[in-house]
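Structure (tokenized):
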């Protein structure tokens, strides 16, 4: 009887052992729990390209079917182990105060993980320990007050813009000096958990300028951030007409250069340097005059072949256009010299197209014996330089027949464009 009871107790114990083994996972087709291990770093040791192990990071492994959540905390070496994980796919989350979290929810973080995804997924096999890729947490920016300096520059003149109203987030100021405005702003973290602070909207208005377009400034707590805004002025026009005091037909008015001193432009859309049309008319866009900026301009007319002309102190328009009278341009001139064979000195040398003429000296008309020739020289003053088309000099020459009778003919110089070489003299030639 006692032996039977002993066998019965031993059998019950064996059944209990088998049942416990089944509960521990040895009965479900031999599946055993696994684990996930890994290391978490942070970038706070010196920037995005450096990292250091981060302790105290809460690491979460979450499975959806069946619902399972396991957690761990990194040690001083940034390492963690999450054990007791049944077979399946786990989404991983990493969080610590002061850092941008990498969450288990799709799209919950705007920071890419080490796997290039917004969520990290790992598959745990039976009885295995999965090593997760190293994860790096990005430090969140500090919150508090920051300083922002806004510099305003005129797009056309490059001058500093004063008298503007600056609104940055909830801060504003009109107190600018030398185009510089200083504001103290509140810096708050990105509500979406980003690695940069929430940007502040910026608007700038100033008398005589277009309002600035929509823009933002990224302020930093405890730091000074500087931003330059290029202001586009409201423009009017300076208009007039260019002419020459003489020889207008010899010059291309479209090659005359117009500029407004101090305006750094050139496409004709607003001030700067441009050319008149073929009739000499010009229209230069310039910043308008305002109560706070009583602008005036100096108009400069320049080019090759005439003396520069400057019209000073042109009062800027309030709107529309102002008319300016530009004195006629005075062409630069030189004296031309030349030598001609057998000149007929009773008729002057003449420059075509302009009607200028000058006398010829030497080379008296005598009967040529044995092919001998005489030579004379001419000088013509006030000949314009740098003409759009070449000029020529026409002279009369003579020949003798066998009875020493004079025959008069015309000779034309080689075409030339006179230039001012500093001596005031330009020499022309005849083909021999």
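Design, position by position:
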């Amino acid at each position: 009887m006692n032996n039977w009871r002993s066998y019965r107790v031993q059998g019950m114990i064996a059944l209990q052992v088998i049942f416990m083994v089944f509960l521990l996972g040895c009965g479900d087709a031999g599946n055993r729990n696994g684990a996930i291990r890994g290391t978490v770093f942070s970038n706070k040791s010196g920037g995005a390209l450096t990292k250091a192990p981060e302790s105290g990071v809460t690491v979460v492994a979450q499975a959806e079917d069946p619902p399972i959540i396991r957690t761990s905390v990194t040690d001083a070496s940034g390492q963690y182990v999450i054990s007791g994980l049944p077979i399946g796919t786990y989404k991983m989350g990493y969080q610590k105060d002061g850092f941008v979290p990498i969450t288990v929810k799709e799209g919950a973080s705007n920071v890419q993980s080490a796997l290039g995804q917004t969520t990290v997924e790992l598959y745990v096999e039976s009885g295995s320990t999965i090593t997760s890729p190293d994860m790096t947490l990005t430090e969140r920016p500090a919150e508090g007050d920051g300083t922002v300096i806004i510099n305003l520059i005129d797009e056309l003149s490059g001058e500093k813009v004063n008298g503007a109203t600056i609104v940055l987030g909830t801060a504003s100021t009109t107190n600018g000096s030398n185009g510089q405005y200083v504001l103290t702003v509140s810096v708050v973290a990105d509500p979406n958990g980003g690695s940069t602070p929430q940007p502040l909207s910026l608007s700038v208005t100033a008398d005589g300028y277009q309002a600035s377009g929509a823009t933002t400034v990224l302020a930093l707590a405890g730091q000074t951030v500087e931003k330059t805004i290029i202001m586009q002025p409201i423009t009017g026009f300076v208009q007039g007409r260019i002419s020459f005091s003489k020889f207008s037909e010899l010059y291309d008015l479209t090659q005359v250069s117009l500029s407004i001193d101090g305006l750094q432009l050139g496409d004709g859309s607003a001030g700067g340097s441009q050319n008149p049309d073929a009739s000499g008319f010009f229209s230069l866009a310039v910043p308008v005059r305002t109560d706070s900026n009583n602008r005036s301009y100096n108009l400069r007319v320049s080019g090759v072949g005439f003396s520069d002309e400057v019209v000073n102190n042109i009062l800027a328009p309030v709107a529309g256009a102002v008319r300016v009278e530009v004195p006629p341009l005075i062409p630069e001139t030189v004296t031309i010299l030349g030598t001609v064979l057998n000149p007929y000195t009773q008729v002057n040398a003449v420059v075509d197209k302009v009607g200028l003429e000058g006398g010829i000296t030497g080379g008296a008309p005598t009967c040529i014996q044995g092919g001998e020739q005489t030579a004379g020289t001419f000088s013509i003053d006030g000949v314009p330089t740098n003409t759009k088309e070449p000029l020529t000099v026409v002279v009369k020459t003579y020949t003798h027949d066998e009875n020493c009778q004079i025959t008069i003919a015309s000779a034309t110089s080689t075409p030339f464009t006179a230039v001012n070489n500093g001596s005031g003299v330009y020499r022309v030639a005849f083909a021999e």
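Reviewer-requested clarification: The chain has one helix and 33 strands. The domain at 34-139 is CATH 2.60.40.10 (Immunoglobulin-like).
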